[in-house]
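Usage

Read records sequentially. Each one opens with the input sequence:
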Amino acid sequence: MRKRLNAELQRLQPADYSQAERPTIWVILENLRSAHNVGSLFRTCDAFGMSGISLCGYCARPPHKQVDKVALGAQLSLPWDGHENALSAIQAAKDKGLLVLAVEQADEAIQLQDLPSPQGGIALVFGNEVDGVSELAMAACDGAVEIPQFGSKHSLNVSVCGGAVLWEVARRYRKL
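and closes with the structure output:
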């Protein structure tokens, strides 16, 4: 067994990727305090073929040294926009007809493994590393999705959480 070379992976070039058709899966980041997490989520969104990212509140925005370092160029090929707050991004997603779900431990949250296969587009709201998705943003969402956890801690790092949730949503959209 050997590792495949990047040239063997048959991936799109960044310019082609930015124009490629993808399922409508949009990510909304609310007040992430770590530029590292923002960069990591850019890279994860690129890897799993998300449509784009909304950076809300005080999220670091490209060009930014730490975002750019961690994103490894994904910030150049993945569409993104900035919003003063998450409510603005949530409303923009709803105006496009997307189902908006907070990724949060909440009453009546759907467990990730029980998330129905989506009909149409979806937007997923990820919150601040300490406080999670704000109450105002939660109230504006159509529902919530939660990752079951079994340890003594009550949360995951937002970029780790993003990796798990975005893989599952991408898998369902692409029927993998």
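Summary fields computed downstream for this record:
- The domain at 28-103+119-138+155-176 is CATH 3.40.1280.10 (Alpha/beta knot).
- Helices lie at 14-19, 35-47, 65-71, 74-77, 86-95, 135-140, 158-174.
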